[in-house]
Amino acid sequence: MPTFSAPDGTLLGYHVAGEGPPLVCLPGGPMQDSVYLGDLGGLTAHRTLIRLDLRGTGRSHRPEDPASYRCDRQVDDVEALRKELGLERLDLLAHSAGANLAALYTARHPDRVARLALITPSVYAVGIEITADDRLRTARLRRDEPWFAPAYAALEAVTEGRGTPDSWQAVAPFWYARWDEETKAFRAAEDEQRNDEAAGLYASDGAFHPPTTRADLARFEGPVLLLSGEVDVAGPQRVMTEYATLFPNAEQAVQPGAAHFPWLDDAGRFVRVVAAFFGGLPR
Hints:
By secondary structure, the protein is of the alpha/beta class. The two termini are 34 Å apart. It contains eleven helices and eight strands. An eight-stranded mixed beta sheet has the order 1-2-4-3-5-6-7-8, with helices on both faces.
């Protein structure tokens, strides 16, 4: 696996797979091994995916200074990867919490981003509020699922601040379009893939300044795709629509029936939309 040095000397790794022009991919979690992205439903048939293992995750080394896990401090890691790849500009894709890092990188280096795809993005970096009603209204779209009643009760507890570790486990079915053996195994693997120390510091004080980021993103002229899942309680549609309006040249795609991992939920549809955005398929 190729490696490179971050500006602070931390050795970082990345994975290369696929055919076509390079597409840099930032994982979520936060601070989860990029292995969970896999081939993004077969997107490797159209693009060469370059999955960055964020510092302290996957094959990347842990930094000497744990404070460098803070999201804004990892912007320099992405810029170092661009230089490592010898690319003048990046096509950039980010999932979930990784969208915070992508937003900060784009805000700081707008001339280095050609096209940006945000997949079921977290909104901390841009300061959009997600209300309990937003999440519960989205959750109720799945009222006919056999697991719905206990999962919904747990989600109510979480949104009311009464959540326990058991509550967070109970809401897991909401993250996927199907709650079957495959997605249960995918969910179970997350505990081994995430750096919990890093996750706890990712959004620590000083990581985000939404007014500045929003102003910078409003000046970013490159094409942006914001792909959300129709039933994603982490990114309800009202919130995703508001996020898309922060960019002057954004399109929003809502994947029907999808939750937080749309390439697992319907790989064919996901790949068609993303590949078309990046120029790999005709629209």
